[in-house]
Each structure stands twice: as C-alpha cells, then as structure tokens.
C-alpha cells in the first residue's frame, strides 16, 4: 500500500509548485517517479522469485501497451540522438531528453499501479481533489483580490484564476483533464432505478447522498474556475470536447442509457447558462470578441515555426530548443515586443523541434490511445470501462484542441497528466473485471 499511497500523493501535488514549470520542482518529481518505479520493479522481481514464476506478473493493460511504451522509448532515443548529434541547443535537448524519460517512466508506473477498478476510481478522485483545490484557491484569489500564486504574489494575469500555475491557460488545461475524467467517472457509474414507486424513491434518495452528487458539485466548482481563468481556448476546448466525445460515444456505444444523454445535456446547459452567467462568462466572451490580428501575433509565429521545420525537416532543431532558437529565426512579420518562449502551438512546436519522423511517432501514440478508447466503448460490456474510455477520449480531444493555440504539453504537470490519460485509455480497454490480488499491498 505504501507505493500506491505515494503514487497518489505524487499525482495530487503535480500542479502545486507552478505546474512543475521550474527546474527544482520537475527534477524533484522526476526523482520521485524513478524511485517509485524502481521500488515496484524490485517487488515484482521478489514476487517472481518467491512464486517461482517463469516471468514477471504484470497487469494486462501494461502488457497490451507494449507497443505504446516502445513508441515512447523510440522518441526518447531520437531525443538522445538529437542532443548528441544535431541539436541547435544541446543543453536544452539534454534537459528535454531527461523530461521525456521521466514522462515515459510515469506512464509505465501508472500502468503498473492502476491495476483494478478500485484504484482507477481512487486516482480519478485524486485528480478531482487536486483540481478542486486549484479551483477554490484560484477563484478565492480573484474574488478577494489578494492575487497570490504559489507562496508569492502573482506577477501576471491579475484578475484571472491561475491557481498555483503561472499562466491561466495552463491552469485551464489542467482543469480540462480533471473535468473530462470526472464526467467519464459519472458515466462509468450510471444510476439504475427499479421496483415500485417507494423503492425508486429510496434509490433516488440514496443517489442524492452518494458520491455522484458530491462529484457533480465539485465539477461545477471546477467549471466556475475554468470560466474565471478567462482562457478562451481552454473553455472552448472543454465544451467542444464534451460535445464531440458525446456524439462519438452515442455512435460507438452498443448499449446506451438515458443517463448518458441527460448527463451530457445537463453539463452543457447548467455549466454554460447558469455557472457562466454568474462567474465571468461576459468577460470571457469579451476576450473572444477582442481577438484579432492586431492583438495577437500567434499566426505569424505559427508561420515562422512552419518555416523553421522546412529548414530542418528530418531531424528538427532539437527537442526543447525553441526558446533559444526562435529569436534568431523570427521573421520581420512578428512585430510584437513580447518574448515567445514557446510557439503557442504544441503541434507545430513538436514538428519543428523533433522533425517529421519523430512527430509521426507522436501522432501514432495519440491515435493508438484514441483507438483504445473507441474499442472500449464499442467492445467492453462494463459501464465502468466505457465511462473511463469516454473520459480519456474527452481529455485527449480537449488537450489537442487547446494545443493548437497554446503550449500546455510544454508544462510538466500537464504533460504528466497527459501520460496519465494515455494510461487510463489503455486501462479502459484492457483491464479485466477480475484481477490477480497481490499478496503484498503495494
């Protein structure tokens, strides 16, 4: 149980120190990840020796995800080759290589430890708890006008909810994932009413005092904070991903329930019409209206990034090099005085830094995860597996939409959350209803 509790604590603190977007924070967390993985591997070896097993006893989802893990390892090897031979900024590529290895280790750790329905529920509640803390803290800082971040006054985005992140868009990206997993969890546990009127009434009362109502309340709080970030694409990505995933779920799921349609409809109506009205939708709409070529230079930056990729199409400039490479390659069309540490487009930044071969492998990783959740919704009989698949698909779509105009995947906390979602997509597809019970709690 020690390793599992430690893993949950790790997931909970991911967003706390600036979203890990500072060297000391992500170095500490990566060391934590490697230590947990080493501890679990040592226990697997001891179990194999004691039980005289021909091979390690690994969870089904981990075994079935070997191609996913191999693909991520290939990307890290590519990063290593860039750092040694081709990178325009080798030091940055070495740091990116270390980060990439820690992300891959975190995915493996998630697949190894989240090996049952109970643990899947626990990790989702851990994410919801962490997101609720961010939501309450960020909202309170705005409403009270105290405006502090992580143990220090905020230097930017005053009047916007940022939680302990330094950027409102990064907090929005984290909340998108938490909301998606929360919606999926509710779908994974549909309410069933049967019997006479009295029995149905008692079942309804039981539902009102259960975890689902609490979760729905927490999701409403998180949505309030999402709106108060004033993140245009963050809010757009959340609602668009819920609609798109809902449509696909209704198409792919063989056994649909009325609760699925009712839940999605209530989320859209209540969150948009009521919560948004009272907690800052007007300001968010105003920000959407104010978007123009005069106030944004991201389109020009995106064109520059494409030109950079054309100059280095195969090997790229090197992972993690954008901050130091872009200033010397910036075109005259970008006239803003702001400094671009990232491209504000994860997709194009990965393409320019990694080069086309590694970028295609990244695309395959996302496609593989989406195929897992589609198959979970199509082929699994378990409502729980379908719901977790729904939440994973919604989270992936939300982050992909948001990534077209921002750099959430450059923030370690959000990148690790994406790894967790990839693991949950495999778990939704492959984790059996009955699992082997460890003799030792891990």
Automatic annotation (TrEMBL):
<protein>
    <submittedName>
        <fullName>O-antigen ligase</fullName>
    </submittedName>
</protein>
<keyword id="KW-0436">Ligase</keyword>
<dbReference type="Pfam" id="PF04932">
    <property type="entry name" value="Wzy_C"/>
</dbReference>
<feature type="transmembrane region" description="Helical">
    <location>
        <begin position="236"/>
        <end position="253"/>
    </location>
</feature>
<feature type="transmembrane region" description="Helical">
    <location>
        <begin position="123"/>
        <end position="143"/>
    </location>
</feature>
<feature type="transmembrane region" description="Helical">
    <location>
        <begin position="213"/>
        <end position="230"/>
    </location>
</feature>
<feature type="transmembrane region" description="Helical">
    <location>
        <begin position="387"/>
        <end position="405"/>
    </location>
</feature>
<dbReference type="InterPro" id="IPR051533">
    <property type="entry name" value="WaaL-like"/>
</dbReference>
<feature type="transmembrane region" description="Helical">
    <location>
        <begin position="260"/>
        <end position="281"/>
    </location>
</feature>
<keyword id="KW-0472">Membrane</keyword>
<feature type="domain" description="O-antigen ligase-related">
    <location>
        <begin position="218"/>
        <end position="362"/>
    </location>
</feature>
<dbReference type="InterPro" id="IPR007016">
    <property type="entry name" value="O-antigen_ligase-rel_domated"/>
</dbReference>
<dbReference type="GO" id="GO:0016874">
    <property type="term" value="F:ligase activity"/>
</dbReference>
<feature type="transmembrane region" description="Helical">
    <location>
        <begin position="24"/>
        <end position="45"/>
    </location>
</feature>
<feature type="transmembrane region" description="Helical">
    <location>
        <begin position="171"/>
        <end position="192"/>
    </location>
</feature>
<feature type="transmembrane region" description="Helical">
    <location>
        <begin position="354"/>
        <end position="375"/>
    </location>
</feature>
<feature type="transmembrane region" description="Helical">
    <location>
        <begin position="66"/>
        <end position="88"/>
    </location>
</feature>
<feature type="transmembrane region" description="Helical">
    <location>
        <begin position="94"/>
        <end position="114"/>
    </location>
</feature>
<keyword id="KW-1133">Transmembrane helix</keyword>
<keyword id="KW-0812">Transmembrane</keyword>
<feature type="transmembrane region" description="Helical">
    <location>
        <begin position="411"/>
        <end position="430"/>
    </location>
</feature>
């Amino acid at each position: 149980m020690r390793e599992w509790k430690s893993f949950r604590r790790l997931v909970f603190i991911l967003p706390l120190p600036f979203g890990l977007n500072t060297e000391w924070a992500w170095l500490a967390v990566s060391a934590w990840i490697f230590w947990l993985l080493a501890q679990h591997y040592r226990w697997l070896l001891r179990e194999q020796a004691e039980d005289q097993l021909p091979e390690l006893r690994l969870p089904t989802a981990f075994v079935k995800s070997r191609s996913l893990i191999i693909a991520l390892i290939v990307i890290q090897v590519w990063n290593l080759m860039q750092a040694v031979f081709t990178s325009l900024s080798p030091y940055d590529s070495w740091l990116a290589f270390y980060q990439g290895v820690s992300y891959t280790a975190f995915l493996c750790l998630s697949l190894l430890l989240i090996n049952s329905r109970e643990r899947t529920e626990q990790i989702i509640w851990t994410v919801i708890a962490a997101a609720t803390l961010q939501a309450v803290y960020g909202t309170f800082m705005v409403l009270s006008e105290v405006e502090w971040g992580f143990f220090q006054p905020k230097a930017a985005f005053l009047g916007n909810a940022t939680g302990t992140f330094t950027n409102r868009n990064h907090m929005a990206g984290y909340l998108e994932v938490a909301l998606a997993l929360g919606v999926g969890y509710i779908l994974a546990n549909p309410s069933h009413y049967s019997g006479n009127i009295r029995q149905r009434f008692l079942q309804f009362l039981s539902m009102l005092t259960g975890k689902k109502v609490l979760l729905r309340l927490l999701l409403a709080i998180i949505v309030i904070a999402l709106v108060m970030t004033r993140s245009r694409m963050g809010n757009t990505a959340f609602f668009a991903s819920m609609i798109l995933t809902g449509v696909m779920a209704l198409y792919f799921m063989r056994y649909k329930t009325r609760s699925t349609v009712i839940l999605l409809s209530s989320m859209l109506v209540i969150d948009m019409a009521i919560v948004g009205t009272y907690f800052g939708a007007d300001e968010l709409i105003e920000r959407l209206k104010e978007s123009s070529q005069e106030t944004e230079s991201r389109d020009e930056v995106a064109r520059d990034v494409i030109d950079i990729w054309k100059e280095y199409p195969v090997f790229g400039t090197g992972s993690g090099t954008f901050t130091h490479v872009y200033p010397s390659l910036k075109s005259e069309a970008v006239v803003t005085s702001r400094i671009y540490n990232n491209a504000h487009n994860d997709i194009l930044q990965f393409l320019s830094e990694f080069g086309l071969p590694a970028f295609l492998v990244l695309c395959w990783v996302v496609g593989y995860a989406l195929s897992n959740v589609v198959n979970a919704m199509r082929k699994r009989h378990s409502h729980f597996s379908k719901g977790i698949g729904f939440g994973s698909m919604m989270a992936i779509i939300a982050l992909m939409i948001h990534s077209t105009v921002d750099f959430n995947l450059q923030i370690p906390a959000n990148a690790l959350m994406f790894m967790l979602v990839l693991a949950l997509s495999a778990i939704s597809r492959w984790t059996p209803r009955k699992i082997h019970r460890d003799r030792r709690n891990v």
